[in-house]
Structures are given as C-alpha cells and as structure tokens.
Amino acid sequence: MLLRKLFEPIEIGRLSVKNRLVMPAMHINLGSEEEGLTDQAIDFYETRARGGFGMIGVGIIDAYKFDFSSPGEMLLDDKPRHIAQHRKMVQRAHAYDTVVFAQVGIRGVWPLKEWRTLPRLSRLPEGLVWDLINAAIATSIRAAEAGYDAVDIQGNGAGAVSTFTSQVFNDREDHFGGTPERRLNFVLEILKGIKRRLGADFPVFLRMHGGEFMPGGYGVDRAKANAQLLAANGIDFFSVTNGSHATTVPGLTPNVPPGAYAFCAREIKSVVHVPVAASNRINHPRVAEDILRKGWADMISLGRPALADADWPRKAEAGDFEDIRICIACNECLDITRIYEKPVKCLVNPRAGRVLELPDIGRAQKCKRVVVVGAGCTGLQAALTSAERGHEVILLERKHYVGGKWQVAFPPPGREELFEFLAWLLRQNKKAGVDIRLRTEATPELVKGLRPDVLIICVGARPVVPPIPGADLPHVVFAHQAIEGSVPVGENVVVVGAGGVGVETALFLAKRWESSHETKKFFYEWPDFTDADRAALEKRGHAVTLVGRNEKVGIGLGGGTRWVLVKELDKAGVSTLKNAAAVAIEPGLVRVRSADGQLSEVKADTVVLACGYRPNEDLTLLLAGIAPETHSLGDAESVQHALNGTGRALEIALAI
Predict the structure, then answer these.
(1) Per CATH, is 10-339 categorized as 3.20.20.70?
(2) Tens digit of each residue's pLDDT (9 = 90 or more) over 463-472
(3) Domain residue ranges of the chain, discontinuous segments joined by +
C-alpha cells in the first residue's frame, strides 16, 4: 500500500470508520414522493459502499418541500415506505463495514434562479422558520429510526442553514439574525433538537462553508468562530467546503487548483477538537494523502470523484491509480441535477444515473465482431464497453491519434484535466484487448473485409462555415485548427461565434504564451532574475476580440461553468462584442455590425470561426448496409456535449 494516512481508521464520537474517505451527500435526484429513496438510489449508494468508502452520506434529504422543490429530491417523510427504503439502503451499506449518515436539510428557501438577485431572509415569517426547524428535527429522528449511524445537517450550498448563516442573505433582526451569533441560531435550534430527542451521544455532523467567497460575505475567520460555537454545542464532525451557490469565486470548475480549498479545513481544524474533512477538487490519491500528512484535515471528502468512479478507494488502496476514472470537473452532473432537476449523469462514468452500477456489466450471450469507426471519446467508450462484454472489437481511426474533438477540449487554460479522461479511455481500451488501428481510413472495402456483425460509426461533426463574405480567405481558420496549433495565428485575432467553443478558443489564444502560476512563483523566489526574464514570464497571448450575435456569451456551456469562463474573458483581456455580427472578412480586418446597425472595423491578422457544428452523415451513408447491425453516433449534439455521446455509446454497447 502506498497511502499510509488515507487508509488509517478513525474515531468520530462513538463511531469507528475504517478509513479516511467520506463520500458526502450530493444532488443525484434519485428520490421520489412515493418511495423517498428509489431502488436506483439504493444501487448508487451500495455500489460506493462496495467501492471502499469509509463513510457515505445519503441525501440531501429534504425535510420541507416548497412548491419549487425538485421532483427528484430524496425524502424521509412519516411514511412506512420511505423508512423501509432508507433502512434497506443502510443495511446494504453496513454489509461492507461502511458508516452511513443521512444529510438532512432544507434544500432551499427560494428557487435557485433567484439566488443571483440576492434575495433576503426577512421576507420569511417567523412561524415558517420554526416550521423548517421542526421539520429538520423530525426528519432526523426518522433517519435514526431507519438505522442511520449519524445525521449530517446540510449547512452548505443553497440550503436554509447556509442562508441563515450568511452575512449577505440574512438581514433579519430577530432571534435568527442581526449578529453573527444570532445567525447561527437556526442551525443551533436544529442541532439542539436532534440531541434532545436522540441523545447527547448521537453523532451529528455539519457540512459547512469555509467562507462565503462573495462581496459582503463572511470569511474563514467567521467560519472558525462558527465552528467553535457549533462544536461546543455538540457537532461531532465538520466537512468543510467552499461558498454557496451565489459565490463569486470558482470552487468546482477545472481551473480551480487541486485541493485549493483544503486551507479552509486546515483553519477549522485549528480551532476545534473533533474530526474535520477537506473538500473540493481533490480527485487524485496523492493530493488527498498530502493533505492528511500535512495535518490540514482528518478526512477527505470526495463527492464528484465518487460519482466518476465508485471504486476510487479500492483502486487507491491497491495502488492502481491509473485505473481510477478521474473526475474532470466538467460540472455536467451539477447542471443536470440543480438546473434541469433531472437524475444525475456523469460524463466520464456513463453508467451513473442510466443503468444499475452494482451488477457486473455482464457478458453478451453471443460474442460478435464489433467494428467502431472513429476514436473520439464516444468511439472509445463504445469500443470499451463492447470489449468488456466479451465482443471482439476493432477500432478504426483515420488520424494518427485518438480523441477527435476532445483533443481541443483540454488545451484551453484551466481545462487541462480533461486530458485525463481521454488518457483513461485509451488505457482501458488497451487493457480490454481492443484492436486499435490508427492511420486507417474506414473505406467500404476495408470495412467489408473485416466482416463485422455490428458497425458503430462515431465520426463526430463538421464545423459550420457561416455565409460571411471573405470566410474563404487564407487567414480564416476554424477553432479546432487554432487550438491544435496546426495553423499560424497572427497577433490580432477575431473569433467569430461566442458560444462555448468560441469562448474557450478566445481564452486559449488570449493566454497562449502565459506561464503557469507555479512557474512564476518558482522564478520570482530567486533573486538573480533580469527585467528581460521577468517580461518574458509575464507574456500573455494574442489580442483577441470575440464577436457574438447574442446578449449572452457562452451559450451551450453548462450554467455551473459558463459564469466562470465569462469572468475569465475579462481577466484575460478579451474584447467581447455582444449583439454583434461579422458581416465581412477582408485582409487585415473584420467588419462588424452592432445591434443598432452601426458598422465598425476590427483589426484581424487571423479570423477564427467558431460557429457550431453540423452532422457528418457522409460516412454513415457510405457504410450503410455493410453490417447486419449499424449504429451512428455522429450527431452535432454529441460533439457539443460529450456526456450525451458517451452515454449513448454505453447504451448501444450494452444492447449488442
């Protein structure tokens, strides 16, 4: 074993936990009004208990339903069916020596879309506030009845506890606001009520913010004071995360450095005498182990990494780090569950939320020869699942490398981690015995000669060429060409199209020459450094203008990611022209018309087209009828959202 600290046992109050890994409760939307907890949710949690987590959080279990509450929220109402389903889940997790806690909370006191308007708590009647408190206490009592080892009060995200604790949203002047101490009374009333009914030694946890990370919000100093007071009143364990849904500092996107928010746990741990877990962007075992060895935290909380790979602990303990399906922080899971209120999905783990994960993927009744055309993420996933089911798989790729459009997903700054999924797919395909043939054109003659039983065509889509005069000039290139480095790019660049691809291309080019923060820090710590050296280190990139037809830029990006990238455009010095259209491209310039009809000229040594994709159906038509069974996954939607592509690839492979 390589990881000395991660797999040490730990005591939390009266509980003994086999290792230092906890999966926190998170939005998965696998609940229902009828059952409280669906069978698919039970499968989800049992799979992660089997995967080796020492503790698992179930929830968020919403104690009080508003009209705007999600239809997939987990419930534990006073219904025999609810309690029976939760008890079944707890018993199954206990079979793996896993401690299971119920996260109980009020998921939100107003709709998510209102958060950016900065609503205020003073509009809530005091009677309703007490109803929320009593509902949380009653749900906690039912959790104990169902067999949960502990209750975790939801104090993060958009939940009521987070909102009442906030310096920004809590403008009340009664028992529940007006001073930092009174803002804690909401959670204290819940905590005291649980301890009063279940006993002083019944373990109660708190998932809390290490700070609000927004203008006017409290910082880590207030979080430390909050933790001290709460620990003195009986909190047995703190799991420390970043700010709420209204935070103005990125906390979950891939540009956040690994383990960046562990300092919050370190600060909380310095003032309390109960175990503390660090959270956020901890996806590699080495990062987790380092946090524990430095004494910054007692446990490591893995939310999205547990979604990406249920066997993360088992693989980490065995030292099989390369087999871990790393969370790439794409935030598709959060957008699906919080914005669209649908059951959870995961780009890198297409089984999550689609099919049961606990059963083995299963061998096909009959081994078939499966030929997959196109080695992008979709094709690699289709090939991998087919091979895992026992089929003979041949993967054909015209280029000398795999990845397709994913090759341009990870070069933009802050997106480097997306490379890990592609590398994982390639490794797993090789381990599964897939016959990968690069530099191989899938001609009808070649494919016929392979005699496939099943043909899966995954050739992505083609970039759209807009009907702009001059779009065929030699200094006009596509976004993927600019990011791949396959074409020269001049100093002044105009990116036409301000959707997701345009935004990321603009950021890549604007920061193309920028040295990393780690590199700068290293050199600046050494005094023998000339002004010329310093100037070279401070180089940024091209002068970029982004032209988009809409008021909103980044359309097509998930809500959890878009706001971060839009802010980064400003930080990178990108000039953004909204509600504008490129009407002509000429040597050295682009003519742009604004919404009010005004024409302007923008200097452009290079023009980059980022105007979307259209389906590439040519190869599908060319190869039609060759195999008894043919599937095509080359639609534009799958190119824009790899989550759809990998999910559909899994479903097709499971049906063969």
Answers:
(1) yes
(2) 999 999 999 9
(3) 10-339, 369-459+634-655, 465-611
